[in-house]
Structure formats: structure tokens, C-alpha cells
Write a sequence for this structure.
């Protein structure tokens, strides 16, 4: 969806076609097609402009101009700007969130040396760079939950669930939402009598970098929720269509699609998360355990083979993901219309699509506690034995010998 942020002030028409449409448009059209068709550059000077202003200093301006560059060459350029102040106050870092800051430009060239041959070139670029998006609380956690722990123990603040429309939030740093989107395409149309040949070549690139303090509090629980996304798409289409006066006309086409997606994610803990986890453990155990005690217990349960002491929920550790997807497809499609009478036309079509995907992923978690095999019978037995040894003398007054512990257990 981020690759469709560009406004189109030069739209000629929008076609909404019921599915299936794969016999006319190749790949990914079986459910129907929404086709946005922009105006070709005109050989007559013209254009339009639109501007508006609203609250929070909202400014939207967009325009389009077209005209001839020569006897057989015409051009057009469209551009737009969309900016608005944020309306959510972030008291955690004294900024405004949910702002608008985006712009786009789109240019076209049309070469038409004859009525039977023309070339249309299109290039566009758009960018988003915004602090978005804020989250407010609608309900407080029950019992000794995260809201109370953050507010009462860590000194952090959260939005008031009783007043969600105050448009106030808390975070440690402003969100990052940077998206660059650009592409170009070239279309050639050549007519030979009643036969029209069309070739469309296109390339599109999307880059998106996002980061957010996703615990939505001023407590430093999640230090980073980061994504770096790259999408590269290339398509090539060939079509041949007839326009005979006779009752039969048809279309035959081929479509090639090649896309690569690279995505890197990070979800890392902040400086307060270890303390946060400690109070969660205290609450869940009724005050019987603290996080350091649990780490010591599990370390002793392994006989010191694994040292968990001081290693759990450390700032900067967490989960890192790397994904790569390569999608390649080709489609052959065709359609025939047979005009039986002025009021009756029979249509038939066929489509063949071959679609292949190659997918790789590399996911790494370096957070120690999440890797502890807490369901391991051996670890549980060792922990039980250590726990019994630690409390045996207090409960029985006997020496914690193996025989005494075994009998007590």
C-alpha cells in the first residue's frame, strides 16, 4: 500500500471491471481489475491546479500542465504537496505525532511521428517523511499489569484510558516513517491495418524505513521496532489486438513479472525491560521470586553448565529477522469476441499463468531468557532439587542431605 501514495491530478478515467479479467490483463486479475488511466500529454497547452488549507496548518496543493514540445512531441508534468501538523501531543519526547509530510512528481513524454506509431514514457517519484503513528490506551490492564508496573514502579507514563480523545501519548523517541517510491514505464503502440501491437515495459522501486517505540509508554521497554524494506518490480507485456469490421475480433498477449523483496526487522529491548520483567515475575509468583533469584535457580539447576545470571532481558538484545522473496511469473492470455448481432456478442478467453517463488529467511534471537528450555523435564527436576535444597533446612530443621531431601520430596 505504501507504493500507492502518489496522487494523480491528471487522471483520465478509472475502470472498474468485474472478474475474471485474466484473459485481458494477464497475471493477478482473476478477481477483477481497477485500472487507473492517466491522460496522455496533449499537443495543446493546458492544465489545472488545486489548493486547499485546513486546521493544523494543513496544506494540500497539486497541479498538472501539458503542452507541445515540437511537431510530434508533447509533454506533461504533475506534482503535489501534502503537509499538516501533528494533532497528537507526545509528552514523552515533546513532539507532535500523526503529521503529514509528503510530495510527488510525475512526468510524461509522448512521441507520435505518425497516426500508426507512438511512444509514451512516464517517470514518477514520491516521498513520505512523517512522525506517525501515535497509539492511545483504551483500557487499563487488570491486576498487577503492565500499566500499573510502568506507572508506579518504573516512573513511566501512559495515556489516560479514561480520556482517549485528549490526543496525548508517551514515547521515548519520535516514530520514523520514511518511504521513497519511484518508477518508470515505456509504452509503444504500432498499428498495421486492423492490427494493433502494444509493448509496455515498467520498473518500480519502493524503499521504506520505519521505527517506533512500540510499548507506547515513556518507559524504555522496547528500545527499537525497526524495519528496512526494499521492493523491486519489473514487468513486460506484449499485446496484439484486432479491429476488423467483421464479426470476429480478438486479443492475444503475454505478460512477464519479476519481483524481489528484501526485508530486515529488529525488535530490541530497552533499558527498563529487565526491571519490568523482574516485577512481572514478582507479581506472577506472589512475591516468592525475583528475576535474579530465577536466574540463580536455573543456573544451579544445570550444575553451572549454563550461566543465566544477569543475562536475561538485557538492553539491546531481542529478535532480528531477514527475509528475501523472489517472485517470477509469466502469463499467456487471449480473448475472442464474436458479434452475432447488433445486440448480442459472444466472448471466450483462455489464460495460462506460471508463477514461482523462492523464499529465504534468517531469524536470530539473542535474548537469553527466551531460549531457556523451561519445559525440559531435566531442567525442571534440577530446579526442583535446588529449590528443595535451598528451603529444606528452613522447613524441616534437618540437614539437606540427598537422603533427607529424597525422603522429604
Amino acid at each position: 500500500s505504501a507504493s500507492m501514495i502518489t496522487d494523480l491530478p491528471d487522471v483520465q478515467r478509472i475502470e472498474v471491471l468485474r472478474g475474471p479479467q485474466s484473459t485481458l490483463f494477464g497475471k493477478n486479475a482473476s478477481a477483477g481489475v481497477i485500472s487507473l488511466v492517466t491522460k496522455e500529454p496533449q499537443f495543446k497547452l493546458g492544465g489545472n491546479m488545486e489548493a486547499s488549507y485546513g486546521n493544523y496548518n494543513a496544506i494540500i496543493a497539486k497541479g498538472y500542465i501539458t503542452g507541445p514540445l515540437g511537431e510530434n512531441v508533447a509533454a506533461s508534468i504533475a506534482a503535489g504537496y501534502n503537509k499538516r501538523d501533528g494533532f497528537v501531543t507526545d509528552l514523552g519526547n515533546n513532539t507532535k505525532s500523526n503529521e503529514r509530510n509528503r510530495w510527488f512528481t510525475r512526468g510524461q513524454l509522448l512521441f507520435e511521428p505518425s497516426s500508426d506509431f507512438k511512444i509514451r514514457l512516464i517517470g514518477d517519484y514520491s516521498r513520505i517523511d512523517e512522525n506517525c503513528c501515535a497509539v492511545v490506551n483504551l483500557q487499563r490492564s487488570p491486576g498487577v499489569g503492565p500499566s500499573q508496573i510502568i506507572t508506579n514502579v518504573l516512573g513511566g507514563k501512559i495515556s489516560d484510558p479514561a480520556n482517549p480523545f485528549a490526543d496525548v501519548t508517551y514515547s521515548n523517541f519520535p516514530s520514523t516513517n520514511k518511504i521513497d517510491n519511484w518508477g518508470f514505464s515505456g509504452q509503444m503502440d504500432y498499428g498495421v491495418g486492423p492490427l494493433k501491437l502494444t509493448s509496455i515495459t515498467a520498473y518500480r522501486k519502493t524503499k521504506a524505513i520505519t521505527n517506533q517505540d512500540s510499548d507506547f509508554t515513556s518507559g524504555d521497554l522496547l528500545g527499537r521496532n525497526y524495519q528496512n524494506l526494499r521492493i523491486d518490480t519489473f514487468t513486460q507485456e506484449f499485446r496484439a489486438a484486432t479491429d476488423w469490421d467483421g464479426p470476429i475480433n480478438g486479443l492475444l498477449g503475454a505478460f512477464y513479472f519479476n519481483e524481489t523483496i528484501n526485508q530486515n526487522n529488529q525488535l530490541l529491548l530497552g533499558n527498563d525491560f529487565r526491571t519490568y520483567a523482574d516485577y512481572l515475575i514478582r507479581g506472577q509468583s506472589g512475591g516468592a521470586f525475583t528475576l535474579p533469584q530465577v536466574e540463580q535457580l536455573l543456573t544451579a539447576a544445570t550444575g553451572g553448565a549454563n550461566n543465566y545470571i544477569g543475562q536475561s532481558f538485557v538492553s539491546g538484545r531481542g529478535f532480528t529477522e531477514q527475509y528475501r522473496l523472489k517472485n517470477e511469473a509469466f502469463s499467456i492470455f487471449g480473448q475472442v469476441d464474436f458479434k452475432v448481432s447488433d445486440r448480442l456478442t459472444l466472448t471466450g478467453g483462455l489464460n495460462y499463468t506460471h508463477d514461482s517463488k523462492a523464499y529465504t529467511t534468517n531469524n536470530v534471537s539473542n535474548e537469553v531468557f527466551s531460549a531457556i528450555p523451561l519445559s525440559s523435564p531435566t531442567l525442571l527436576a534440577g530446579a526442583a532439587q535446588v529449590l528443595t535444597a535451598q528451603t529444606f533446612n528452613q522447613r524441616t530443621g534437618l540437614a539437606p542431605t540427598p537422603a533427607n531431601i529424597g525422603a522429604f520430596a
The first helix runs from residue 22 to 25. The chain is about 15% helix and 50% strand. The mean pLDDT is 89.
